[in-house]
């Protein structure tokens, strides 16, 4: 079995709760589909935990922003969070993020943060049309923050959702289990208040973290995924 996590986004309380549940389920192999950085303030704690646990991790778009000192063209709030993380991140953690690859293949499972047209920043909406152009049978990506499992014919795709910022109207952290290429989505409650307090202590306004209470984007928008055949 493999546990698949994604989009941690500096939310250490959510990450530790997810890893505790993965341990409880007896899953020893964990992979992360990227976006360790961004949005919440505990970037060093998240990097340290993933490194210590030897979690195989990919580079997401927020990791790329942080590693390259680039900004996000579509979100002022994301950039404010990244600016904070640039001030506090340990050099060894920044070097680790910069070393990550955007995609890989583990056994027969093809993994990427974004999509197979743009590994870092493509939003995948699974469909037979999309995956007919991608080689392989089993796929997983993150980036959308909305969990799903999609199967059509011989092809199966999983998005584990987000550990650190769920956006589907469920405030619980999300991850997936791959057991002999059968995927299941799991949700875990965590101490949202601890993350919110860390953000307050770091000087952030409530606008940046109140969304965690409802499972939404910063600003309150809930995302839905329309599954197509």
Describe the structure.
The chain is α/β, with parallel strands linked by helices. It has a single domain, classed as Purple Acid Phosphatase, chain A, domain 2 (4-Layer Sandwich). It is 29% helix and 20% strand. The protein contains 7 helices and 10 strands. The strands form 2 sheets. Strands 3-2-1-9-10 form a 5-stranded mixed β-sheet. β9 and β10 form a beta hairpin. The protein is globular and about 50 Å long.
Give the H and E element order: EHEHEHHHEEHEEEEEH
By CATH, the architecture is named 4-Layer Sandwich
Write out the CATH superfamily name: Metallo-dependent phosphatases
**Helix residue percentage:** 25-40%
Shape: globular
Number of domains: 1
Q: What value does the average pLDDT take?
A: 96
Could you say which structural class the secondary elements and strand pairing correspond to?
Answer: alpha/beta
N-to-C CA distance:
27 Å
* Low-confidence runs: none
